[in-house]
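Request: Have a read of the protein record below and say how the chain folds.
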Amino acid sequence: MTKEEEVYQMLEKVYDPELDEPLTDLNFIDRVEINGPSVHVVFRLPTYWCSPNFAYIMAEDIRKYVSELDWVTTVQVSLLDHCASDEINKGVTNRCSFNEVFSGLSDGDLEDLRRTFDIKAYYARQEKLLKHLLNRGMTEEEIIGLSIQTLKNLPLSEKGRLLRNKYLEKKKALHHSSLLAVTTPEEEPLTKKVFKDYLRGAKRTRMSMEFNAHYCRGLLEERYNLPPSEEVDLVKE
C-alpha cells in the first residue's frame, strides 16, 4: 500500500457529522499532498455557507486520523472556498478549539453538537440493522431480547455484518455499557409495545439524512462541475 493509499484509508474514517457518510464517499476530499512525513489534506464542501461548526469537526477529524499513521509527523488541513476558510484552517493547524476561533458561537467546544449527530446516526444505523434482522426472520421479541454478545455471534451475510459493525461503532461512540444490544440512545430498553413506533421514528431520521446526503452531492457536483455520482437509493419501504 502506498503512502497516499494509507492516507485515504484513514480519511475513510472521517464522517460528515450531519450526513453520517465518509468524506471520501461524498467526494469532499479535493486532494492529498505528501512531502516526506508531512501530509496536506485539502477538502471542500457543497456551498460557501456550509456551517462552520460542521466544517471544523471534519477538519479536526481529518487531522486526528491522518496523524495516527506512524510515519506522519505533521498534518496540514485546508478547507477550500468557504466563508470561514481562513479561520478554520488556521485554527485547526494551531490545534485551537472551535470556541477559541469562533468565540461565542458554540458552547462545549462542539462536543454537544457531536453527541447530537452521534444520536441521529445511531438511529439511522440501528434502523437499517433492525430492518435487516426482521427481513431475515427474527421476531420483534427476539430482537428486543438480543444481548450484545448474541448479536456479535449471529451468522449474518456480508451486508448484515457491515450493518452490525457500523451500529456497534456508534454504540461505542455513545459510551454504551448495557448488555442489551437494542436500546434507545439513552440505553433504555425497548418493549414490544413501543417497537413499531420507535422503528418508524428511526426510519424518518435515516431517510432525512440520506436525502440530505443526496442533495449535498448534487450541490457539490454543480459547484465544482464534477461528473454526476451514481444515484443514491433512497429506501422508501
